Amino acid sequence: MWKLPGDPKKFYFNPDEITAFCFEGDCQQTLSHGTYRVDDEGLVRSLSYRCQHAGDSPRVILALLYLPPSLSTRFLSLYSVYPISRSTYYGVDSGTLGLKLSLFFDLIMATCLPEDKFVSSHLAANKSDRNLDVLKQSRKKIWERFHLCKCRAYCLPLTDYEYLGDLQHSSNLLPKREVIVNLQNSVLSRISAMVLSDTQDYSTALLKTSVAININYPHMKKDILTVLESLCVRSIPHCARALMLTAEYLAIRARGKGGLRSGPAANPAFTHIFESMKKHFAGIPNGSKDTIPRSVTVEAAARVDLFGGWLDTPPITLSANPSAVVNMAILVDGKKPIACHVRHVPDAGITIRCGDTTVLLSCSQDIYESYNKPRNPGALVCACLICVCVPSGPEDNLLETLQNRFGTTGLEIECTSCLPHGSGLGTSSTLAAAIIQALGLASGFHYSEKSICHAVLMVEQLLTTGGGWQDQVGCLYPGIKKGLTQIFQTLIESFFNKTDDCVDVEKIDIKEEFEKEINSRMVLVYTGKTRLAKNLLQEVVRGWFSGGPIREVIASLESNVVQFVDSIKEGTMPCELIELYYNAKKTLATGCEPEIVTCLISQLKRESLIETAWLAGAGGGGFLYVWLKDGISVDQVRTFISRCGTAEMTVHTVTVDNSPITVALK
Predict the structure, then answer these.
(1) What percent of the chain has pLDDT over 90?
(2) Which one of 22, 392, 506, 511 is at 20 to 30 Å from 125 when CA atoms are compared?
(3) Which range (215-229, 561-575, 586-600, 628-642) has the least confidence?
(4) Which tens digits make up the pLDDT trace of 34-54?
(5) Is 316 helix (H, G, I), strand (E, B) or coil?
(6) Which residues lie closer than 8 Å to 644 by C-beta, 6 or more apart?
């Protein structure tokens, strides 16, 4: 705890530098704190920790940093980089082992030291992870992003400084019995009001309060589930909301063991129930049998969501009428951006290669331990393997399975993508489709597009990420198309039986002139501002169950799908309907449009460069779709963006892909 004088000095923060803070302490304080060594310009040159300071007035580190917007974005993007993702709740909730990193000794030091010294540094070892191999991998990733940055330390004129311990200043005062009783009764009353209300408002804080009371004061315990059950019976029209709150309560009661994605679904107490349910689900059906190749390469297109996103997402897709999405397969800068390579190798087991990461699966148990932990390296591939029954169970002999299915005991699966994480172009679903097709071909089977579409739905459920069917439809079928689900009963039967009739696809034929117009007027701008929250799907589904505005937004999409398709068939890009679709996205995924993107769209419209623009994906992906005004070129947009203070943004061309999946066998 520290204090500044009443009229503190004002500092100027360089927008390209990290700003650190310190104060002039005494030599005694350096024995229990860290210190900065700065040069004459105030730039940090090294850090020390708990050591005797040779000179006077050591610069004692304050636990305060300022990162300007550009560096904050770069820093926050590390949440998706393995193994750094292990240090975030995002990774831990997905089942990965934790990772301890220091903001100072694992970030600030990257601006001071050459790579070899930074990666191998043992300074303040207790502040960083003990797993040295993982720590070194993490530091390499951090150094790559921050070694060119400067860190400037400002010395604050503190008037008071006190180091607070963890326990000596804490208090643990228990409230009186009557306060708890009144609180519990108030919570139950407000929960009842939430269920029976016609508004969409709800609060998990009430449920958390009830859980806390039940745990800490068992003699005053209230059975909240019985209350919710009675509300289901009492008011059938509000039953969905009571069930939603029941799911929330179970997730809270699971104490995070299931992660934010699946609530209690991964809690060991529920394992036997869900394993029993899985027996009723079918994997991908076998296709036609061919000879077994030694190497398979599958390349896949990306997809542009033109209209109707969210109508493909269970359970919304079960009741939407029509449950239809319009999207388009595309090349990015003239290339298919996603690929999967499966080949025979001499090393036994399955080797997964994704970028710089390599994972070796030596037994079936390795696959089953990773498939439902989406932040684990290779988790998507593991889910795809289980989907195609390689292996059929955790006790299967993996080498025998590989020999029987692929004619080898060693298999390498390499996944590549030139699209960044969180692009909004359906990368993970498209990659899953490519993996499944490659695994099928490598084992002598050719799966139909419908089979793969069905299988990717299953993969995303196995992975616990959830999702709809539009991404795989977009990458598997050529050109512009409308994906459409069957009626409710047929859809349910396709999930539980060995059929793949859950989605129909109607090709939208367009004239050659309109296709050329799309290729010249549609542009991708990579903003670098990925905003898709991991629990967005749950939030939207929860809101849909609750009724209110989300239901109205979904209804507006349903009622305009046919009109959108008619406009495309007539050779017109319906910009007004695209604006409606984008506004729906922003309502469903509140805050998905970063301020810098809002400003960019406004500037592009003000300069008469574009007709409309909308962020990719369900909740604001990294790419911005842009529809240019007639006569405006890609180079004009590229030049404008480079001049308006958004140097990190890049512009990419779009080409309608009429052969979205290509296969090479050896």
Answers:
(1) 47
(2) 22
(3) 215-229
(4) 899 999 999 999 999 988 877
(5) helix
(6) 600, 603
Which of 157-161, 256-260, 335-339, 455-459 is predicted with the least confidence, judged by mean pLDDT?
Answer: 256-260
**Cα 32–chain centre separation:** 39
Residues 6 or more apart from 408 whose CB is under 8 A from it?
A: 294, 344, 345, 402
495: left (phi over 0), alpha (psi -120 to 50) or beta: alpha
Is residue 191 a contact partner of residue 248, using CB atoms and an 8 Å limit? no
| Distance from C-alpha of 174 to C-alpha of 282, rounded to nearest angstrom | 53
**Which range (394-408, 506-520, 533-547, 576-590) has the least confidence?**
533-547
Structure tokens at 527: 């903003």
What top-level class would CATH report for the domain 512-657?
alpha beta
H helices of 131-203, in order, are 132-146, 177-196
- What is the phi-psi region of residue 649: left when phi exceeds 0, alpha when psi lies from -120 to 50, beta otherwise? beta
The secondary element (H helix, E strand) that includes residue 311 is none
Q: Which two tokens stand for residue 561?
A: 């799908």
Burial class of 515 by CB neighbour count within 10 A (0 to 12, 13 to 18, 19+):
middle
- Using CA atoms, how far apart are residues 136 and 123, in angstroms rounded to an integer? 13
DSSP code per residue over 522-569: EEEEE-S-----TTHHHHHHHHHHH-SHHHHHHHHHHTTHHHHHHHHH
Mean pLDDT to the nearest integer, 190-211: 70
Q: Which amino acid is at 477?
A: Y
Rg (CA), the chain: 28
* Helix locations, 279-360, DSSP H: 316-319
Q: What is the pLDDT of residue 300?
A: 98
Token reading at 197: 């209300």
Report how far residue 408's alpha carbon sits from residue 92's, in angstroms, rounded to the nearest whole number: 35
At residue 216's C-alpha, the angle toward residues 212 and 218, to 5°, is: 105
User: Does residue 70 contact residue 95 with C-beta atoms inside 8 Å?
Assistant: no
Position 96 scores a pLDDT of: 65
Dist. CA 283–CA 456, nearest whole Å: 10
> Which pLDDT score, from 0 to 100, does residue 442 have?
95
Confidence label for 259 from pLDDT (cuts 50, 70 and 90): very low
**Is the confidence at residue 371, as pLDDT, over 60?**
yes
The letter for the amino acid at 489 is Q
Cα separation, 353 vs 360, whole angstroms: 9
Q: Which residues, in sequence order, are CB contacts of 437 under 8 Å at separation 6+?
A: 298, 340, 447, 452, 661, 663
Quote the CA–CA distance of 289 and 287 in Å, as a whole number. 6
What is d(CA 327, CA 656) in angstroms, rounded to the nearest whole number?
11
Q: Is the pLDDT of residue 174 over 70?
A: no
What is each CA distance from 518 to 165, 235, 609, in whole angstroms?
A: 63, 51, 15
Q: Facing residues of 2 across strands? A: 161
pLDDT band at 629 (very low <50, low <70, confident <90, very high): very high
